[in-house]
Request: fold
Amino acid sequence: MFGMGASELMIILVIILLLFGASKLPELGRSLGSGLSNFKKGLKDGDEGPTLPAPKAVARVETPADARPEVPAPTPPSNPQDS
Reply:
């Protein structure tokens, strides 16, 4: 298995046991298993592509023409070479 013998696997398991403790190992295995199953389910269901939520409608408020502020027309810049 991955080029490792039984003695290497035992050393790795002892290190994991020392790092996490005996009480945390079942919880760690459960969370790892549920994460892996969710990942597999997401891969299987993900063939359809991502779904985006529907865009929200934006309400427009119309203002009467006489209520709009007067904006002066822009004047072109004067060119000193024309004079």
Notes: Residues 25-45 form the longest helix (21 residues). The chain is about 45% helix and 0% strand. The helical segments are 6-20, 25-45. Residues 1-46 form one domain.
